[in-house]
Amino acid sequence: MMKEPRDLLRKATLAAAIATVLATTTALTGCFTQSPKPEINTAETSPATADKSETASDSADITITVTPDAETKVETANTSVTNADESATAMDDDTRASAEEDETVAEAAPSDSAEAPSQDNPPEVDTSEVFAKQDAAKEIEDSATAKAATATQTIEQADTNQAETKAQAEGKTVEALTQGETSATTGDDTAAEPKDAEAAVEATSNAITAADDEAETNSLNPEPEQAITDLCDEIGNKLGSVSVEDCLAIELADSGARSRLERSLAVKEYLHNGEEKNGRVLLMGGIHGDEFSSVSIIFKWLKFIEKDQATEFTWQVVPLLNPDGLLRQKSQRQNDAGVDLNRNFPSPDWDADAHHYWQSRTGANPRRFPGPDAASEPETRWFIKTIENFRPDAIVAVHAPHSLVDYDGPQKPPSRLGTLRLHELGIYPGSLGNYAGVYKNIPVVTIELPSAGIMPTRNDINQMWVDLVEWLHREVPKQKLARTEGENNGSDDLPEIDSLH
Asked: How many Cα atoms within 13 Å fall on the side-chain side of residue 371?
């Protein structure tokens, strides 16, 4: 049946109005959800629209005539849709720009976490850690300031000493010149010749030069007392059997010599009742830095020497010959240059055999590297100089952990010291036993403690000491006599240290 044009117009107008409402609603929804503007498909929008589409499809063969009034309403509806679309697009652009601005700010702001904290629930701040770091920084700053002040004071003191020495020397120079001039004027028979005055001036000039050298040395090296304090502080914090107070109580002397890392090579000397009687004994420990017990037992025996005046020997004690090896974070046998000091002494066979022995017999073990040259290390050279100056009648060197007594040199060796039995190991190129015992003809007793990290029992420590002193009383006088006879005969086979390089 034919439909009236008015009905068709009413349906078209209604469809356009519904499309307008749906387009506006969809655009506004897209604005708030920031989603792309959807395309409007009136064929899938609502059941009512679908019914109308089906009706229109059923009447496809009917020609629809649209009046001007209806055309105006359709155009108005289209205009509304266009305006709504533009408004939605504008709002969508504003929203997107705002979102991009927020994202840019978030990338620029530093953050320790991937997700920013909520503004409603800000994270709690632990101020204790901040204050602790501030306190630690302040403590480091105060310590640095104190050390700088101490260094400045040391340099000023050295400058003062140097100035005083120069002033005294210059005063003596003026006095000597004045005396020379006075004597020449008066014609005194006892007056010094002009050449004597010149000699006095030259001697004074030499004294000034020596004072300059000493002042420069003192400005580079720490004061002896401070060097010993620093050494004892490190020893006491490294060894379990020796405290800082134990070390300081011994009152070690700074020899003036330094290790590779500028640590003091400290000594302690005991002269029985102010005089030499039975002979001289050189006692040394810690030539290998990883043999802790060889250092600790020396400090125990130092207390025995202080209390036991019956020993009647002159002692020179070196508790720690290799401080750099012991006092590093992980202790090692060698010194800081990686040299085994007990293979670095200039024995006659060193040049020919030291490196060959190291490579062929030890497989080039770095723990036993003899050094690039004989006596290449400052610790070795200083100990050689100590032997030259002290001229011991016996040397006792403490090692670990082979649990025995070794011996090199003249006189009769001890058969036992405490629980340790005599077991001679032979000689090695560059060892102290080879250099001093065989080459220099000085008895060298090598004590190998049972453990490098564990001290012997108190009874064993005491008994070893008693047996050692008994052997010294028996054999050292013989060696002293032999040494004296050799000196009287003009025999002096100890090399000068300068001839080693």
From this structure: 26
CB 261 within 8 A of CB 249: no
Q: How many CB atoms lie within 10 A of CB 228?
A: 20
Are the beta carbons of 91 and 32 closer than 8 angstroms? Answer: no
206: helix, coil or strand? helix
Report the amino acid identity of residue 459.
N
Q: Who's near 422: CB < 8 A, 6+ residues apart?
A: 404, 405, 406, 407, 413, 414, 415, 416
- Please return the burial class of 363, using the count of CB atoms within 10 Å of its CB with bins 0-12, 13-18 and 19+: exposed
Q: Is the pTM of this model over 0.70?
A: no
Of the candidates 469, 342, 451, the residue with the CA atom closest to the CA atom of residue 404:
451
- pLDDT at 116 exceeding the cut of 80: no
Confidence grade of residue 331 (pLDDT, cut at 50, 70, 90): very high
pLDDT score for 271? 82
Q: What is the DSSP string of 167-197?
A: HHHHHHHHHHHHHHHHHHHHT-TTPPPHHHH
237-266 in b/e burial notation, b at 16+ Cβ within 10 A? ebbeebeeebbbebebebbebbbbeebbbb
CA gap 443, 407 in Å, rounded: 7
**Given phi > 0 = left and psi -120 to 50 = alpha, else beta, which region is 206?**
alpha
